[in-house]
Design a protein that fits this description.
Elements (H helix, E strand, L loop, with lengths): L6 H21 L5 H14 L4 E11 L2 E12 L3 E6 L6 H14 L3 E6 L6 E6 L1
Parallel strand pairs: 3-4
Antiparallel strand pairs: 1-2, 2-3, 4-5
Helix pairs in contact: 1-2
Length: about 130
């Protein structure tokens, strides 16, 4: 992928980011990441977006189960959203989202970090 998203996916990611900024504005920073999941889902619903939380992706190697990835949110069956509440995002967080995208056979994810006074957003493309 060359970094450009299809217009419908771009619209979804923009709505997710806007919803996350609203949650950050109202709740502040520093809670555990799980605390932000439901308020973000509420905001996504207000935007008219369908979402599911803690979506499991089962991994297999040569037909044998080897593990499960659990994504924080899946929005419109298109965008994986991973929530963090850390001092700073790092390459391991990006790798985690890339693995979720691979397991789900999706191309775009968002890392949202509520651990700083200003929400940190990182778009991850596979």
């Amino acid at each position: 992928m060359n970094g450009a998203l299809p217009p419908a996916t771009e619209k979804i990611t923009e709505a997710i980011i806007g919803a996350a900024f609203e949650v950050s504005r109202l709740m502040g920073h520093g809670f555990l990441e799980a605390v932000y999941r439901r308020p973000l889902g509420h905001e996504l619903g207000l935007c008219g977006l369908k979402w599911r939380e803690e979506v499991a992706y089962h991994l297999a190697y040569k037909g044998n189960p080897v593990g499960t990835y659990v994504a924080d949110l899946l929005v419109e069956d298109t965008v994986i959203v991973e929530l963090k509440a850390v001092d700073a995002l790092n390459p391991q967080h990006t790798g985690q989202v890339l693995n979720y995208l691979k397991a789900a056979d999706l191309t775009v994810g968002l890392l949202l970090n509520f651990g700083k006074p200003r929400l940190e957003v990182k778009r991850v493309l596979r």
